[in-house]
């Protein structure tokens, strides 16, 4: 791929100058792991304080595993999608009991942990252990598809995008972790979904992108959803056990309680509480 020589060099040079100073980039494998789980559905700015608090409180997988799942859910605060807290706790228990208290380095072992999918396994293997993994998040997909094909990424990771990412990975001459971090950062800060900064982009001369006008996906509404009701229940229980909750829609409240119970995020004994 002729353009690859430029892409590889230009993006990593840009990264050297513009990279954000994110603490997990110089942290332990556990710090990397926690950051990747938190960043799955939450922006960097909101993850930063929570990540510092978690690493201060639970500096190793064993430290978290030895605490209760309820403490993990409580400390998750308002990061959203709190099942991630429970799965982080479950993963920490597995690391303590099966992996000698360490975050595993193999992608297959990482994939066996709750809450870890293809992207997260590759990211932890590359960023924590320098493994030669193909790390493809939505930012990388958008960058590669735009520059190399001129289109926009599909709503989910397609076979064609997977092939494209693998070809690029094979051509990249810098270490996989550096390429992945640089491409992700570039997609997050320059080649963004809604407002790519093409006018100031160092890839403009080699980029094939033609805006389609249909490239943005609408963010899911939160107001009035079952997710909001679940969040309200957890906000009460983070302060302590409760007998009842105030919520305008009784059926929705019941759905929220049922689903939180089913997910193991709350328990019901004499009162409702965190596990
Ligand atoms: S020129 Fe625009 S679309 Fe192409 S890589 Fe740069 S920011 Fe993205």
* Backbone structural class: mainly alpha
- Termini separation comes to 53 Å
What portion of residues belong to β-strands?
A: under 5%
* Rg from Cα: 21 Å
Instruction: List low-pLDDT spans.
Output: 214-219
Which ligands, by name, code or SMILES, are bound?
Answer: iron/sulfur cluster
CATH architecture of the domain at 21-129: Orthogonal Bundle
Oligomer: single chain
The DSSP helix count reads 13
Short account of what is shown:
The chain is mostly helical.
Structural topology:
Elements: H1 2-18, H2 29-39, H3 44-57, H4 61-65, H5 69-76, H6 83-98, H7 107-111, H8 118-129, H9 138-149, H10 159-171, H11 176-189, H12 226-239, H13 250-262, E1 267-268, E2 272-273
Antiparallel strand pairs: 1-2
Helix pairs in contact: 1-11, 2-3, 2-8, 5-6, 9-10, 9-11, 12-13
The structure holds iron/sulfur cluster.
